[in-house]
Amino acid sequence: MSGSSFGKLFQITTWGESHGKGVGVVVDGCPPGIEMNESVIQEMLDRRRPGGSITSTSRKESDTAKILSGVFENQTTGTPMMIMVENRDAKSSAYNSIADIYRPGHGDFSYQAKYGIRDWRGGGRSSARETVGRVAAGAVANAVLKKENIEVIAHTIALGSIKAKTFDQQAIHKNMFLCADKQAAKLMKEEVARVKAEGDSLGGIVEIRAKNIPPGLGEPVFDKLDADLAKALMSIGAVKGVEIGSGFSAATLRGSENNDPISPDGFLSNNAGGILAGISNGDEIIVRVAVKPIPSISIEQETIDKGNNPTQIKIQGRHDISAIPRINVVCEAMVNLVLVDHLMRQRAIQ
Amino acid sequence: MSGSSFGKLFQITTWGESHGKGVGVVVDGCPPGIEMNESVIQEMLDRRRPGGSITSTSRKESDTAKILSGVFENQTTGTPMMIMVENRDAKSSAYNSIADIYRPGHGDFSYQAKYGIRDWRGGGRSSARETVGRVAAGAVANAVLKKENIEVIAHTIALGSIKAKTFDQQAIHKNMFLCADKQAAKLMKEEVARVKAEGDSLGGIVEIRAKNIPPGLGEPVFDKLDADLAKALMSIGAVKGVEIGSGFSAATLRGSENNDPISPDGFLSNNAGGILAGISNGDEIIVRVAVKPIPSISIEQETIDKGNNPTQIKIQGRHDISAIPRINVVCEAMVNLVLVDHLMRQRAIQ
Amino acid sequence: MSGSSFGKLFQITTWGESHGKGVGVVVDGCPPGIEMNESVIQEMLDRRRPGGSITSTSRKESDTAKILSGVFENQTTGTPMMIMVENRDAKSSAYNSIADIYRPGHGDFSYQAKYGIRDWRGGGRSSARETVGRVAAGAVANAVLKKENIEVIAHTIALGSIKAKTFDQQAIHKNMFLCADKQAAKLMKEEVARVKAEGDSLGGIVEIRAKNIPPGLGEPVFDKLDADLAKALMSIGAVKGVEIGSGFSAATLRGSENNDPISPDGFLSNNAGGILAGISNGDEIIVRVAVKPIPSISIEQETIDKGNNPTQIKIQGRHDISAIPRINVVCEAMVNLVLVDHLMRQRAIQ
Amino acid sequence: MSGSSFGKLFQITTWGESHGKGVGVVVDGCPPGIEMNESVIQEMLDRRRPGGSITSTSRKESDTAKILSGVFENQTTGTPMMIMVENRDAKSSAYNSIADIYRPGHGDFSYQAKYGIRDWRGGGRSSARETVGRVAAGAVANAVLKKENIEVIAHTIALGSIKAKTFDQQAIHKNMFLCADKQAAKLMKEEVARVKAEGDSLGGIVEIRAKNIPPGLGEPVFDKLDADLAKALMSIGAVKGVEIGSGFSAATLRGSENNDPISPDGFLSNNAGGILAGISNGDEIIVRVAVKPIPSISIEQETIDKGNNPTQIKIQGRHDISAIPRINVVCEAMVNLVLVDHLMRQRAIQ
User: Fold this and answer.
1) Which pTM does this prediction carry?
2) Which chains touch D (3 or more CB pairs under 8 A)?
3) Tens of pLDDT along D297-323?
4) What angle do CA A129, A132, A137 make, to 5 degrees?
5) Topology of D5-349 in CATH?
6) Do C113 and D279 make contact, defined as CB atoms within 8 angstroms?
């Protein structure tokens, strides 16, 4: 399986560059008979659209999803679904000045090193716009999981120096940061304003929770559920870290503190994050990802050009201040994709 | 590819349970003409052997590697190598008492939920003993990478509450904790003694560094180098978190702080951990993993039996206090495996 | 990897139904720096277009290929190429009458059994129109192979009862049957006229030859070159048999007849069809496929409807008399795809 | 997935050379709870043992199967099964004389070209002895399929010039050629005696039938059931052709003859060989393979040595006259493996 495909049974293959003709995904292996139409996809895509948040670029993308195959009379047929979004509002000329310059923190240098050629317009394939395909596919996965009552939700637990201190699920979709702590959300707004004024950018931490997971998902010893979640989430451009349950804090806990005691009614704590020995234990799955600050900043930076000459760069134009909150729905999508794939793998051995 | 296989071109498949007849690995796809014999494997295996450290079980395993195929006249032939270690010192009877009880923090419950049957002797397939196959395969990967001058080294940066504060590579193999800070190593020894007396166990953090990596390794957008490293490392039993470069601390940095400026002589910092947009940038690769405390403790814990009746358990017998330092060579092995696979993938497109 | 994907390193994923919005393919893993534009694809697609031969349907399809990603400044970039053709001249209403009837020799019954739902319009996913994606991808593979001087050519060696008796490569593209024996081609024309008048259809045999193959391609013991060729070709709808070199006639030869003696200048015969022990030996690769007669005939046939009631069917409308010669370019495409994938796999171990 | 692995969910990985320490297989992805022990494997292995037939070598191999993992209390646990057979009666010295000579019809030349090194002892990896792993894995697959009442049987329909003319399933295991026509079997015995006296060898045709196949198996458009069967069977060393149902004879049939009419009670004929559009239709699956004559003959042949000098070779020692009937159980094994994998894939989407 090549690098643009993900999933073993529920397999997606994304394609497209930021400023090419479009972006999209082929979803192959989806079970037949799932209710499906373009609005199912669109609803999810709208959540990653820029311009929906003060952290985001003002680039206007209609991002209208079209399903070109695999659906008949509003049902999936079990054959591959091609879902695409045309690129419309792409101003490539804005990128002319950086055609020969490697932007710090971006993939310009490494793409050039790998392929000897790169589509520099808007970051080409390394653009966050590639996640359109992931989110569209995630919407299909979500439709399958809904039949099992499985629910996946991402929320922001840190943005720059601001940390969420409480968890109120109802609050998440009531603030632009998708934060479950509405007080923290207010502080985040101030933080963003400060950083924007400075021409700088912010990182943060997103937590993803998945409920109603049947025990038994995950395939030891390499396709463990946590291993596949780690890969899925780390494959998102801005993510630099992934942890499950107690995660990095487990390093400082004793066994007697980190072990989750078991009672006839279930686990009495959830340091495991819902996964034991790589297999879901029926408890809520809890994963967190570290999101690095957007590398495109208008502050001057040292860099080089293709000829290895030193130069400086200030990145102008429309750029997000933080990948959060647009990345949140991408995280949900990736978790949905891992879960549906493992659900199907588990069905296969039963 | 099923769950016990890893790697796309350099593919390994591990097999074996803790108290079965043996454990091992098939390495398929290794380039031909690599110098190979059993001592290459043995040297690596000896580093994961229990009894070599005060944190480890006193179980004596000779762990003698046998290569049964794929090597001819001390060279790899390009055909699959089967490497195995027989199980000898396995006292299954010590586990009789827990045949019907789910140990907290272990995979007993989740394995039973998945398969409806489990080999409870010593944890069966979920035992750390499975990593024998990983380490043996990692030794083969390492032999391939050596020809490219690539070097992978793991060191302990935290054990329980003790953190390494300096980095002296020479120190790593001079203390039993594989810590690059010899002062910290002394404190770790005291920490372990304390915890052992309490019948408890410890977690920690291991950092893996890989040098002389050619730029260009990694396959966007899903088989990114960092994504595959995250999966590889998270698939190790005790690992609950993985981060690359600045990792979780990137969440609190500004773009202007986290971006690595570029000069004609290379990157001026390495927050990226050697990977940009999922592709190696030629800089040192830096990854850290969170290791949870060993779940087997002699302190009494609440749990249930197979009939869902509440019970208590104290785990007696030979158990490590921490997966560190035995896990370090396993981490090295997994990183070696990812690197060799991506090296070969990159060759394929050239 | 799901069922609509093929290839390990040079991976294609086709999508689309006969009467949906379009058909296409994602080509992932193509080496960068290959000269590419839509005319490279179009030239190949034009060879499978209906209406180009007296054996073919009069359905007019412009089949205009669009490349939506993966190409920049007329070169492949190493990122996935999405190539699509819109469906325009699809008269679905012509199929209304068979929405609930299983056509003999078609996949109507088996698709329904598998998925519980099927897009019956024009055969849906099981239509030969799916091969548009294969041919487009084959054109890309062909562009890579050309750099190695590798050439793949398919020719018709039998159509119904008419067999080619001579081989003149120059003749192949000078007759509508792509037959290397121009005398046989004339007889084929008469055979087709006879069968068409009867409302019946014809099968035949296509031979594919590949020249300038470097020795060493093929991955024992399952991904042998002949095994992958067999799969690739048998996956084409109308193909019911595949043979390599002496093929089925090897069954009646003695070892002394079938073995190819070797001289310092190469093999003295080619019963092996260019493949020994699953690995190319440097000789010409020779494969033949059995093509069944088109199942859509206007002669009345016994069948059942979805309710398992007996009924009769005469298939009217535009249908080919034989899959030959349109299938020939599809065979070439599949062989090109296998060869490029194995070329890349071999590079990876060197 | 590397070349020594086969199957998507029920994945096998074979290892071992003819004269190395052993041969075997890892079976990963087998459903848990299947009754299993070494005699299940042994029974199947005994059927491929040399010395059991007048066509076979007199090499005595005990071929005792050991299961080293994946089975607990006589049941599969869902974890990988390692099954191995030690090599005992391997007289490598008999091969010394051909260490530097390429045997016609063998993989000596192509292996050397691919890897630059080869284990020449007994053919190394390209030896038919590799099929021990396939047969052992096929026995496991067979145990899973038995629960679904699926039965796979191979019989010889041609040996050299002798063809079976009747089909009496009871006769198959009553003659040494596994021929369903006992009269033909007698003639085969005479044919073998003649050819043996000449120091030559024979090919033939084996037919494999699979009964009680549920409709719906097969994954369009590349992992069609017939495509995977073709790959599975063509990957067997001596096989040079594969055909399904009417196969190559379909080339001369009209559509009205080749189509299978459908009645409320099922298909009225079976030219499809039980597969329509790549998906099982519930009818018996019928596949035939062309088996080339054994290349090792004692008649002198022209060849070259490693230095490209012309030389002659007469292959002495213990060699089969025909791969039939030992290959028959290997064919059954490969068909079993394809069927179990597709059965599991179909379960996954339901």
Assistant:
1) 0.97
2) A, B, C
3) 999 999 999 999 999 999 987 678 999
4) 155
5) Chorismate synthase, AroC fold (3.60.150)
6) yes
